[in-house]
Amino acid sequence: SIETVRGRRVWDSRGHPTVEVDVVLDNGLLGRAIAPAGASRGTREAIDLRDGGDRLGGKNVSRALASVNGPIAAALRGCDVTDQAAADQALLALDPSPLKETLGGNATVATSLAVLHAAAAAAAKPLWRHVADHYGTTPRIPLPEIQIFGGGAHAGRRVDIQDFMIMVPGATSFDEVMEITNEVYFAAGDIMAQKGKLAGVADEGGWWPMFDSNEEALETLVAAIEKAGETPGDRVVISLDIAASEFRKDGSYRLALEDRDMDSGALIDMLGGWLDAYPIASIEDPVGEDDVNGMVEFTRRFGDRVQIIGDDYLVTNAKLVEEAAKAGACNAVLVKVNQAGTVSESVETFKAARAHGWGAIVSARSGETEDTSISHLSTGLGGGQLKVGSFTRSERMVKWNECLRIQDEPGSGSFVGGAPLAGTWWG
Ligand code: PGA
Ligand code: ZN
C-alpha cells in the first residue's frame, strides 16, 4: 500500500517549474512521474495550477505542490497502489471541479502517473506490461509521428500551422523509423541552410520555420523526404497539426503569415487542396475547437482518406469523444494524460475512441521532461501511434529511445508499421 506521497519542484524543457511526485510504498518501492505543460492548450483541458505574480514568469508551482503534499498525500496514504481507479477517484473526490482547478491538473497528473509507476514496481513489471495487464490491452510498438518543422505557438507564430511531421508506416521496425527520420530531419536542415533559412529549432526541436508561406513548409518537407532517398507517400507520409484554434479570430481564421482571413469553408477548402497536392495521411485540429460544424464538414469530406485527430477539440475527454463520434466529427483522438488530469480518465478516453474504430495517439506536450511514461502508455495500450515532438533535444529523444528499449523486451508486441497505408488505416 501507499505510505507516502511527496511532491517536489523540478524544471521542464522550457526552463519552467513543474511538479514531480514520488509515491513510496510500505515495502520501500518508488513510483515517480513529472507533469508536462502545453503551450497551445484547449480551453476545456485540466488547468495547470500556477502561482501567478512576478517571480518565475508567474509559473511557480508552490500551490500545486501544496495540493500534493497536503490533501493528496493525506487521501492516498494507506491506499492499495494496484487500484488505479480508486486512487484517481480519490483525486476526483478532492477536486470535483471540471478543470481540476482546485488541486491543479499538474498536481493530479503527476500523482496519478506516479501511482501507476509504483504499481508497476510492486508487480515487478515494466510499466508498459503493467498497463497492458491492468487494462486488458494488447501491447504494440507504436508508429511515431515526428516533427520536422515546428510552427504556431511553438515558434513565436513564425508560421500559422503548428506541426509539420512525418510518419514512416513503411518501416519494418521502430529502429528503422528512427534511421529514416534522421535522414529526413537533416535533409530538411540542409535545404534550409542552402536557402539561407536555417535559424535554429522551435519548442519541440523541429527546425525553426523561416518560410514565406505555410505551403512553403509543405514543399520543403516533400523535398526533404526526396533528398533522404524516399518517395513521398510511399514509406514516408506527412502528418500535420493545424492547431486551428490558435489562429481563430472572432469566428474566422486569420493566417497572419499570408495576411489572409478565411471563413471555415475556405479553410477546409485550402486544407482539402493540400490533401490533394501532398501525401498527407493525418491531420490534427483542422478547424477551431469551437467550430463543430466545420469539424463535421471536414470529416464528411475527407474522413475516408485521412486520419482526423481531435486534440484541442476533444481534450482527452471520453464524453467529448462520444459526442464527436455521434456527430460525425473526427476519426481519431489525441491522448494527453495532463489534459484529462488522471490516468483513469485518459484510458477511458482511449477506450472510447477504440470502441468507435478511431485512432488513438498518445502524445507529449510542448513542455516536457525526462519522464518516459507516455512511451509505456502508448506501447501498453497498443494504440498504435505516439506523438512526441521532433528528433532533437533529450526531452524528445528520451521517449523515442525508451521505445527502442521496450522493443527489445519480450512480449512488447510487434511494430505497428511495415505496410503501406490503406483505407481507414488508423482504426
Ligand atoms: P501543446 O501542443 O503541448 O503546446 O499544447 C501540442 C499539440 O498541439 O499537439
Ligand atoms: Zn495539437
Helix/strand layout:
Layout: E1 2-11, E2 17-25, E3 30-34, H1 62-76, H2 84-94, H3 105-122, H4 127-135, E4 143-150, E5 163-167, H5 174-194, H6 214-227, E6 237-241, E7 248-249, E8 252-255, E9 260-262, H7 264-277, E10 280-284, H8 292-302, E11 307-310, H9 318-327, E12 332-335, H10 337-340, H11 343-355, E13 359-363, H12 373-381, E14 384-389, H13 394-407
Parallel strand pairs: 4-14, 6-10, 10-11, 11-12, 12-13, 13-14
Antiparallel strand pairs: 1-2, 2-3, 4-5, 5-6, 7-8, 8-9
Helix pairs in contact: 1-2, 1-3, 2-3, 3-4, 4-12, 5-6, 7-8, 9-11, 12-13
Bound molecules: 2-phosphoglycolic acid and zinc ion.
Catalytic activity: (2R)-2-phosphoglycerate = phosphoenolpyruvate + H2O
Family: Belongs to the enolase family.
Function: Catalyzes the reversible conversion of 2-phosphoglycerate (2-PG) into phosphoenolpyruvate (PEP). It is essential for the degradation of carbohydrates via glycolysis.
Descriptive account of the structure:
Pfam families: Enolase_C, Enolase_N. It comes from Meridianimarinicoccus marinus. This is Enolase. Keywords: Cytoplasm, Glycolysis, Lyase, Magnesium, Metal-binding, Secreted. Its cofactor is Mg(2+). The strands form 3 sheets. The protein has an 8-stranded mixed beta barrel with strand order 4-5-6-10-11-12-13-14, surrounded by 6 helices. A 3-stranded antiparallel β-sheet has the order 1-2-3. The protein is 38% helix and 18% strand. The chain has helices at residues 62-76, 84-94, 105-122, 127-135, 174-194, 214-227, 264-277, 292-302, 318-327, 337-340, 343-355, 373-381, 394-407; strands spanning 2-11, 17-25, 30-34, 143-150, 163-167, 237-241, 248-249, 252-255, 260-262, 280-284, 307-310, 332-335, 359-363, 384-389. It is globular. It has 427 residues and is α/β, with parallel strands linked by helices. Bound molecules: 2-phosphoglycolic acid and zinc ion.
